[in-house]
């Protein structure tokens, strides 16, 4: 028996960075399945006219969907709070938040300015926290909700010329997993996706000294340009759905393929009092991947670490 069609009828979904790119695709796809969508993005130059978020809303409503625009800056506490207030005022509740807004300011070590470091961390990790904090009381009151965060392979695996962006996205993994643990008893699920799709974010940054090779160049223009944003939207919608089967996970996705990114620890080597020379001599065992464990929390890791240490001491 199949799972049946998954819809979002009557469900309110807030999407940041939804004026263009992946976010705009997410908004359209959610609306096509019945969601009431709050489209968040900043107006260009602070102007009130020709706002991309308004254009996305117009396209949704012309197709028979329901959406409103909210133009607050979610990298500020007041903006994040105001966005959630707009959602509640428009539709009465908030069932899912897709925290998708992001920015790039490339720079290699030595050329990256403190201003660019701070700006990227503010948008790519602090804004996620601010949205989480703003949504938390609403979702707790409702008995649950879904928090979906935009991650990146740069943060999961590292990338040259991306020191600020990689650091922010790596920090996001800790947020996702901790929020999942805190939200478990409240019915709030927290997950992230690291997408690859044909959007402007995959192309080189203009006029910035950086050795970053953009995703489009890594995989090749023809392959990159064939990676549809709609395939990423499918993953995001499942993570935002009330039937989402996971929490505390991060997934990479491209071209319809979805993979879970796992954090693992080796069995390791060592015992109390081991010398520096002994550690170097047995370093290969420290990194041996024949017996991996996959802790889902700090508690899991620490108990396993201490337990193995005690067993190694007893065996010694």
Query: How many extended strands?
Result: 8
The strands making up the biggest β-sheet line up spatially as 3-2-1-4-5-6-7-8
Mean pLDDT: 91
Strand content: 5-15%
Give the distance, in angstroms, between the N- and C-terminal Cα atoms. Answer: 54 Å
The CATH class label of the largest domain is Alpha Beta
Question: Secondary-structure blueprint of this entry?
Answer:
Layout (H helix, E strand, L loop, with lengths): L11 E4 L5 H12 L3 E5 L11 H11 L3 E5 L6 H15 L4 E4 L14 H29 L2 E6 L2 H5 L5 H21 L4 E9 L18 H5 L1 H5 L3 H12 L8 E6 L2 E5 L14 H6 L1 H4 L11 H18 L1
Parallel strand pairs: 1-2, 1-4, 2-3, 4-5, 5-6, 6-7
Antiparallel strand pairs: 7-8
Helix pairs in contact: 1-2, 1-9, 3-4, 4-6
Detailed description of the structure:
This protein is an alpha/beta fold and 316 residues long. The chain has two domains: 12-261, Rossmann fold (3-Layer(aba) Sandwich), CATH 3.40.50; 276-315, no CATH class. It has helices at 21-32, 52-62, 77-91, 114-142, 153-157, 163-183, 215-219, 221-225, 229-240, 276-281, 283-286, 298-315, and strands at residues 12-15, 36-40, 66-70, 96-99, 145-150, 188-196, 249-254, 257-261. Strands 3-2-1-4-5-6-7-8 form an eight-stranded mixed beta sheet, sandwiched between helices. α1 (21-32) packs parallel to α2, α1 (21-32) packs across α9 and α3 packs parallel to α4 (114-142).
């Amino acid at each position: 028996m199949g799972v049946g069609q998954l819809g979002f009828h009557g469900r309110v979904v807030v999407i940041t960075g939804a004026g263009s790119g992946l976010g705009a695709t997410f908004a359209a796809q959610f609306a096509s399945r019945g969601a009431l969508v709050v489209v968040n993005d900043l107006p260009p130059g602070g102007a009130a006219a020709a706002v991309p978020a308004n254009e996305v809303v117009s396209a949704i409503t012309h197709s028979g969907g329901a959406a409103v625009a909210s133009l607050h800056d979610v990298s500020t506490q007041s903006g994040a709070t105001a966005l959630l207030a707009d959602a509640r005022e428009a539709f009465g509740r908030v069932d899912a938040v897709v925290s998708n807004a992001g920015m790039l300011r490339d720079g290699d070590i030595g050329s990256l300015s403190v201003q660019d470091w701070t700006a990227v961390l503010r948008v790519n990790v602090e804004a996620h926290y601010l949205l989480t904090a703003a949504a938390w009381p609403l979702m707790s009151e409702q008995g649950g909700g879904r928090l979906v965060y935009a991650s990146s392979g740069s943060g999961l695996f590292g990338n040259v010329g991306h020191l600020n962006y990689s650091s922010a996205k790596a920090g996001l993994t800790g947020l996702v997993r901790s929020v999942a643990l805190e939200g478990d008893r409240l019915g709030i699920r927290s997950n992230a996706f690291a997408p690859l799709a044909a959007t402007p974010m995959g192309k080189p940054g203009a006029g910035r000294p950086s050795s970053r090779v953009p995703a489009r160049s890594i995989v090749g223009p023809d392959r990159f340009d064939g990676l549809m944003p709609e395939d990423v939207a499918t993953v995001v919608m499942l993570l935002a759905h009330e039937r989402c089967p996971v929490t505390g996970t991060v997934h990479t996705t491209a071209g319809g393929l979805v993979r879970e990114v796992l954090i693992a620890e080796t069995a390791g080597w060592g015992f109390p009092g081991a010398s520096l020379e002994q550690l170097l001599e047995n370093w290969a065992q420290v990194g041996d991947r024949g017996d991996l464990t996959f802790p889902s929390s700090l508690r899991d890791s620490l108990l396993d670490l201490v337990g193995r240490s005690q067993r190694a001491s007893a065996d010694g």
